[in-house]
């Protein structure tokens, strides 16, 4: 797994972990609906100085992150997290990223990412790389199905 994957995936996993530790306020009320998952929705748009792009490409740019996340937490502790996220740098030389995926977190903590894990593109060029299928993160490694060229690519070659 590349540093960008860890950065982008890791940041969204932190949001999932926070929801697991601090369940939504409506959880107590959900007991009357036993068996139904607790659903939490969030959406945000933030612009930030992109340290990762600066370190990887040597380019100082702000990036706008727009994301929509729907988290379903089940009684057994498992979760599904539907993520739609766009990372759009102000500098047009840097690739934009789109993620449209579902993270499935089992009660034992095993995480499987399904869908369009990463799509890198530039305006005027179209898609540079598309990573789809599923990837399962285990304590002793990673199992994947589908085309995952991003996992085998130097990020600087496709982002910068």
Structure description:
It contains three helices and seven strands, in the order αβαββββββα. It is α+β, with helices and mostly antiparallel strands. It has one domain. The chain has a seven-stranded antiparallel β-sheet, covered by helices on one side. It is globular.
Biggest sheet strand order reads 1-2-3-4-5-6-7
Number of domains: 1
Q: Beta-strand percentage?
A: over 45%
What's the β-strand tally?
7
Radius of gyration: 17 Å
Report helical residue fraction: 10-25%
The helix-strand sequence is HEHEEEEEEH
Judged by helices, strands and strand pairing, the structural class is: alpha+beta
What would the principal axes of the Cα set say about the shape? globular
Q: What is the average of the pLDDT values?
A: 84
Largest sheet: 7 strands, antiparallel
Quick overview:
By secondary structure, the chain is of the alpha+beta class. It has three helices and seven strands; from the N terminus they run αβαββββββα.
Q: How are the elements arranged and paired?
A:
Elements: H1 3-21, E1 38-49, H2 51-57, E2 62-73, E3 79-89, E4 96-105, E5 111-122, E6 126-138, E7 141-145, H3 155-159
Antiparallel strand pairs: 1-2, 2-3, 3-4, 4-5, 5-6, 6-7
Notable traits:
alpha+beta, 7 strands, disordered N terminus, globular, 160 residues, seven-stranded antiparallel beta sheet, 3 helices, 19% helix, 47% strand
